[in-house]
Amino acid sequence: MSLSKHLTKLFSCSHATASAASAARHLRRRLNPPLPPPPSSLSASLLSLHNNILQLLYSGDLTEASLLLRHSFYSNLPPSVHTVNATLRSLLLSRHHSDFLSLHRFSIQSGMPPSVTTHNLLLQCYVSLGRLDTALEQLRLLEKDDSVVTPAPSSYRVVIQGLVENQRLTDAVKLKDEMLAKGFVGPDCKVYNILMGGFAKAGNGDAVVALFEELKEKLGDEDAKVSYGVVCGNLMKGYFLSGMEKEAMDFYNNVMGDGSGVKFGVDSYNSALDALGRNGKLDEADKLFERMESDHDPPVRIALNGNSLDFMVDAYCFAGEFGKAVTIFGKMEKKNVSPGVKSYNKLIEHLGRNQLVATAEAVFEEMLSKNVDPDESTYVLLMKGCFAVNRAIDAFDYFKKMVKSGLKPGLIAHLVVMSGLVNSGELNIAQEVFDKMLGNSVKPSTACFELLLKGYLKVGNLQDGIKIAKQMLLDDRIIFRDEIKELLVGELTKGGREEEMEILYKEVEREKAEAAAREAEEKERAKALEKEERQRRRAELAAKEAAAAAASKAAIEAILGSKRNVDAEEEASADGSNGFLRKIDIPSE
């Protein structure tokens, strides 16, 4: 029997070569990658491990959870990708980036097949660390033909969000174009919304409108309506920036109308609320907030969150309605939305800027009564407010309260308190804060030195000014700018002490030379100690080897001596037997 057609023509699933078959299998796997089973399908043992690790994560014991997860890889029941992803997400949210990367590398090396969620978490980690180029490289690895997992819309959102937040808008637009060209993901309204928000923040309203028109063109007018709720707020900001207030409000009224059919989530509501509040539309913002309150029905529907409160606080404060901004906190609590430290900081910032420091302090006390722990920003905002109304000592008291509370003030907090104290003439207290910076593990910056130097020169205290200048010149991290040098020289010249500048430079050169000599001497001493330590270890090793050789020799001698004694006894025994046989005339052989 003969076949008139080639075998591959008759059977669509057959292939001419093994390589072609392998390529076809890989293509099918790439187009339809296998999804990991959901957590509900895990076996009883795997589910028990998953729940145990989740319990540790919820209790905040990330170290123990990571350790248990690592140990489970060596057991007969390795963890599922869902368990690994849950642990990685907790580490990322807690900003334990080094532990995240270590666990991710360990899980991959242990043979766990990563899911798209695993890749997205890695992208988020790189973005959070500011390693945007590394995130782009990782994303392009997913785009390769031999990648088992293809990028999802969320993958592009993570990287584009990072680029936008770091003002790399051109790179973000290029990545969006690359996303469309690769074909893994179609036009994604959330990606466009992120880009529109970035351009709106940069003040480029025309680019915002152009992106919206591009999205409509790619989706079509009917399909684009689905995305109107997502892009509404940023599009309104773009219209407002371009001076198109009528178009902004027409679009808003269109999508918010009863028959629009556009669905709004909490993020979409918040974006529109922010656009209205920032552009003087307080009445419309009030109406929208009331609609959000009526729609809010947790857990069925979430229409309010902490960001909603922040945007309404902004709207009221921009309009000068500070009383309403304070009372809205109580309204949010009735809706089971508890204001966090970010919301309180937002209100305190607005009150401080408008010199309503007493009200800001009352908000701070209320914050403490509600068991909301203030952070460094809270105290910094209170200090700024106190300095603005000439209450320098009260501002310094807030700095001391921050230290007493267990918070470690960073460089910004030190700069704020020092700047305010210097401007208020409290140079002694500012110097005290400066002297304690190193004790708080904070290295003074150039700005810290310049604040004190200018303050001392302003009051004519040249002696302390020279001391600060000397510290600046001795510290290799600090830049002694020409402007500061000219200021110091000018004040010294006014006081008839211009020669002290030359003396200062000579002292600095001498002390630097002495420090370099001490450093070189310490290096030589360290080398000598290291050499001495090596010689000591070699001598110890030689002595141990000699002792071991002597012990071995003694053991061998003992064994040989014992053997000689046994041989001698055997010979003596043999001689005795032969003598007895001779006595009775019996030959030995």
From TrEMBL:
PROSITE patterns: PPR (PS51375)
Stored InterPro entries: PPR_domain-containing, PPR_rpt, TPR-like_helical_dom_sf
Gene3D superfamilies: Tetratricopeptide repeat domain (1.25.40.10)
PPR repeat copies, ranges: 152-186, 188-218, 265-299, 305-339, 340-374, 375-409, 410-444
Name the UniProt record assigns to this protein: Pentatricopeptide repeat-containing protein
Region annotation Disordered: where it falls in the sequence: 566-589
Stored Pfam families: PPR, PPR_2
PANTHER family: PENTATRICOPEPTIDE REPEAT-CONTAINING PROTEIN (PTHR47937:SF5), PLASTID TRANSCRIPTIONALLY ACTIVE CHROMOSOME 2-LIKE PROTEIN (PTHR47937)
Origin organism lineage: Eukaryota, Viridiplantae, Streptophyta, Embryophyta, Tracheophyta
Organism: Rhynchospora pubera
